[in-house]
Write a structure and sequence with these properties.
237 residues; Immunoglobulin-like; 6-stranded mixed β-sheet; 1 helix; flat
């Protein structure tokens, strides 16, 4: 009888062990399953430091760019754009500064994009500076930035608002604008619709459907100017 009882206890013990009575492999010791790693967080945008926005830069050999570290970021992409030639210099680094050799005598914009292992990115503000190489008494205004219609967008026919923004290192300069607008795809934005315009917004009436090309030439009171480059929008039927 004792042998039968001992055999029964032994079999029950084996059964309990085989059903998970001990710590399972890869668990947390409390009967739970594997613990998932923490979800990566989206990067935050970098805060630019220098060259300061809308300033003159007198660097001779290379311009040093600096910005504050952003959270949840493993690398930064520095984009520097020549605002007259539209040439873009791109550098991907892990530090918060970089030196870039640029051609003197041109206006530039720069921006930093923060990235990490996720598919998300964070774009910093976009700053502008003028690389003169030597101090100048007057600087050409920065090329105007098209605001509306949004480049490449479609709008209803009728009254359409053309608007833009601009900046100039020389705070005391006065400015005016020449606007060019047409539908000629072979020689676009060569028809001047207004000269020496004083505002940064103008309403035009367009009823003919199709693609329109337009640009803004910004002029200062010293005779220097800059061109926004051609922007397009489509007027719907």
């Amino acid at each position: 009888m004792k042998k039968i009882l001992l055999s029964t206890v032994y079999i029950l013990s084996l059964f309990l062990i085989s059903c998970g009575g001990g710590e399972s492999e890869g668990g947390d010791g409390n009967g739970g399953g594997p613990v998932d790693p923490p979800t990566p967080q989206k990067p935050s945008k970098a805060v630019l430091s220098k060259p300061a926005n809308n300033t003159e830069c007198l660097e001779v050999d290379a311009v040093k760019f600096e910005w504050n570290a952003s959270e949840n970021t493993t690398s930064y992409t520095l984009n520097v754009k020549n605002l007259l030639t539209n040439e873009i210099s791109t550098n991907t680094i892990t530090s918060t500064s970089a030196e870039v050799t640029l051609t003197k005598g041109f206006p530039y914009s720069w921006q930093v994009i923060s990235t990490n292992a996720t598919s998300f990115v964070a774009e910093s503000d976009k700053w502008k500076f003028y690389l003169s190489g030597e101090a100048l008494k007057n600087h050409a205004p920065f090329p105007a930035e098209i605001l509306t219609p949004i480049p490449g967008s479609s709008v209803s026919s009728g009254s359409i608002s053309l608007s833009w923004s601009f900046s100039d290192i020389d705070a005391n300069d006065t400015h005016s604008f020449d606007l060019y607008l047409d539908q000629d795809g072979d020689d676009p934005a060569t028809k001047k619709i207004v000269s020496n315009y004083g505002a940064r917004k103008r309403t035009v009436s367009l009823t003919t459907p199709g693609v329109y090309y337009w640009r803004v030439v910004t002029k200062d009171n010293h005779g220097t100017s800059s061109d926004s480059g051609i922007s397009t929008f489509t007027v719907l039927e």
